């Protein structure tokens, strides 16, 4: 995986989660996002530069817009449940438990 992922993540749990997310994109149906993910995973593409490039901008923007529309329609309880679930998944990725804030 390209070193830029570790620099962006700053936390080993987040880096591992990014790897999992990039793997899902590499196996997904969007050819541009597959290309981006495969390049980052192979170490050939800098994630920060790829995300900022015009080549992937439209595909990323579309994906973020879909997520934002989904997230905006959730009520506060559902948002909190998903936040807790995401924290648990991050812990599970490294098979360690961290105290909850």
TrEMBL record:
This is Uncharacterized protein. It comes from Couchioplanes caeruleus subsp. caeruleus.
């Amino acid at each position: 995986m390209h070193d830029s992922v570790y620099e962006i993540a700053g936390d080993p749990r987040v880096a591992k989660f990014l790897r999992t997310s990039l793997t899902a994109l590499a196996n997904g149906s969007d050819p541009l996002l597959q290309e981006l993910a495969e390049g980052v995973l192979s170490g050939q593409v800098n994630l920060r530069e790829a995300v900022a490039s015009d080549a992937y901008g439209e595909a990323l923007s579309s994906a973020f817009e879909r997520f934002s529309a989904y997230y905006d329609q959730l009520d506060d309880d559902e948002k909190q449940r998903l936040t807790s679930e995401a924290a648990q998944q991050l812990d599970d990725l490294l098979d360690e438990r961290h105290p909850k804030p």
